[in-house]
Design brief:
Radius of gyration: 23 Å
Number of strands: 2
Structural class: mainly alpha
Number of domains: 2
Length: 426
């Protein structure tokens, strides 16, 4: 009984600490965003985003789902095979080499400083996969404090350092990038240290089938989240990307309450099945729409009334971008509810297919807009809204078909059982 109480208390403490870390990150980003915008200007803010985005996206998709697969497999063997960690390091080297070679293509005006930033930050990819493995091992073991300590270098420490630099009058593009690089290095080293501590000669090997399946399901959404900013960095001036990046920060901050509601819904969905789980999804999703509407209106009012004061010159087109991206954020948070629900019910196929359809529509729409010569931040933001809408509709159609198929299969099974009973009785 005592072990059960301790386990429950540990999970509760982990949930509380994770929530505190998350909200601290959101709060600090709201404070630091105007400071960065004022200090760097629209062009500098765009340059910083262009330097970080390619490496961030590659860190999500370059490792083929291996860190999560190994973390799951290591629970049975209590260790990692040397070969498995070497595979992750090799994937990291390939990713680093790829971003080094592609850096000039990723920046619209061939800005030499930004290209150099991308290449330097890309070197961290060599050990990023190993670091992800360390984080996933901590998460699988329920060790939330060290897991949150690694997260802190991504969501808390950068904002704190940027606020300090701004107050000291030292926040420039160079120092802002140095903060990002330093925090990335520390996060990678911490996660890697934990992973290397679990290496054994006869440890867990890579479960490729699971890893590739997980990678396929997560990669599409990971790309869709940042493809808008990647396209702007490659095709438009950095000033426009800078305004867009600030608008994304505002929309993300407004979505914090709804995201917290979605995060706490996962346990509810796990406890229920069938019609009960769908009822819970509808109730939670409707509550999410209410919180999204309230916080979105508040953010629009904030930017409309105080945008010039908070962000300074160069952000005159911020309000319409924020308004459109708040719609996208609302739709994205609704998608978050559905990913938690379907994951809890073991129904990942509909999510993957819907994500592929949505991403295909986004790429096609942006391509047409670019060919017509009307590409802009607002046009890309509207394209993201269309993508999110199509993704939700596709998932609804697929989920309905899956439900109908399950119902018809259940009816057929009951009919066969009834016929078998009739034959036995006769």
């Amino acid at each position: 009984m005592r072990r059960v109480v301790v386990a429950v208390r540990t999970r509760s403490d982990g949930a509380v600490s994770t929530a505190l870390f998350t909200y601290a990150g959101y709060g600090l980003s709201i404070i630091s965003a105007p400071m960065i915008a004022q200090a760097l200007g629209a062009e500098g803010r765009g340059a910083l985003a262009a330097a970080v985005l390619p490496v961030q996206v590659l860190s999500w998709i370059a490792f083929l789902g291996v860190p999560r697969g190994l973390a799951v497999a290591a629970r049975d063997t209590a260790g990692l095979a040397v070969r498995s960690v070497l595979v992750l390091s090799m994937l990291g080297m390939i990713a680093a080499a790829g971003v080094w070679w592609a850096a000039p293509v990723l920046v619209s005006d061939m800005n030499g400083q930004v290209i150099g930033f991308i290449r330097v930050l890309g070197l961290t990819l060599v050990l990023t996969g190993v670091s992800h493995l360390g984080s996933d091992l901590l998460l699988a073991a329920g060790r939330m404090f060290p897991w949150n300590a690694i997260r802190a270098f991504a969501i808390i420490v950068p904002s704190v350092l940027q606020i300090v630099l701004f107050l000291l009058g030292r926040l420039t593009l160079g120092t802002a990038f140095a903060v990002q690089l330093t925090c990335s290095v520390f996060a990678v080293l911490l996660g890697s240290a934990f992973a290397f501590g679990h290496v054994k000669r006869q440890g867990a090997r890579i479960p490729w089938r699971f890893s590739i399946a997980f990678w396929g399901a997560s990669t599409v959404d990971s790309v869709a989240v940042r493809v808008d900013q990647l396209l702007l960095a490659a095709l438009l001036p950095l000033e426009e990307l800078g305004v867009y990046a600030v608008a994304v920060t505002c929309a993300s901050a407004a979505g914090a309450a709804t995201q917290a509601l979605a995060d706490t819904s996962f346990a509810k969905f796990v406890e229920r099945s069938g019609g009960d789980s769908r009822d819970a999804l509808r109730a939670r999703a409707r509550a999410g729409l209410v919180t999204s509407a309230v916080t979105s209106l508040g953010m629009v009012a904030l930017v409309a009334l105080f945008g010039d004061t908070l962000f300074g010159e160069g952000y005159e087109g911020l309000l319409p971008l924020v308004a459109v991206l708040l719609v996208y954020q609302t739709l994205g948070d609704q998608w978050r509810f559905r990913t938690y629900h379907d994951s809890a019910q073991g129904q990942s196929r509909d999510l993957l297919l819907s994500s592929v359809v949505g991403l295909g529509v986004l790429v096609a729409l942006v391509s047409v807009i670019a060919v017509l010569g009307h590409l802009s931040g607002v046009a890309v933001a509207i394209s993201m809204v269309v993508m999110a809408t199509v993704r939700l509709l596709a998932r609804r159609v697929l989920a309905r078909r899956s439900t109908q198929h399950t119902a018809s299969t259940t009816v057929e099974r009951h009919m066969r059982e009834a016929n078998d009973q009739t034959e036995l009785s006769s």
